[in-house]
Write a structure and sequence with these properties.
This protein is an alpha+beta fold. It folds into two domains: 33 residues, no CATH class; 78 residues, 2-Layer Sandwich (Alpha-Beta Plaits), CATH 3.30.70. Helices cover 34% and strands 24% of the residues. It contains four helices and four strands; from the N terminus they run ααβαββαβ. Strands 2-3-1-4 form a four-stranded antiparallel sheet. The two termini are 17 Å apart.
Length: 123
């Protein structure tokens, strides 16, 4: 949200809001900023969730390997049947197929299940 818009919502001056943001950054409360694109901004992107089950003590090596995949936009550890839930994003189905194959070939993955995300809704 632009600082001017935030200032208007809060009923404060733009300078006051900017100074407060600068102080929060300086104090380490705010550690970074990000850009979130609307889904329509990347209409050709293929998005999926991949659940991964790991054999024995291979969790850390698998985690390190997954971090090396730029297509893995988020890696979550979880409990239950699956050890990891990985959010994947590729430009097309061909690239998606390639990354799935490469991940499934990692030593220590005992099983996986992948679901394409057809639509997403935010609250």
């Amino acid at each position: 949200m632009p600082v001017a818009t935030l200032a208007a919502i809060l009923g404060l001056s733009r300078a006051t809001v900017q100074n407060r943001i600068d102080r929060l950054v300086h104090d380490g409360v705010i550690t970074g900023f990000t850009v979130t694109l609307r889904r329509e901004a990347e209409p050709d992107a293929v998005c999926a969730i991949m659940m991964i089950q790991v054999e024995g003590e291979r969790t850390e090596p698998i985690y390190k390997a997954l971090r090396g995949f730029p297509e893995a936009v988020a890696i979550h550890t979880t409990n239950g049947r699956w050890d990891f839930v990985v959010e994947l994003r590729t430009p097309d189905l061909e690239a998606f197929d390639r990354v799935l194959r490469r991940i499934r070939e990692l030593k220590g993955i005992s099983s996986s299940e992948t679901s394409l995300l057809l639509s997403s809704h935010r609250r």
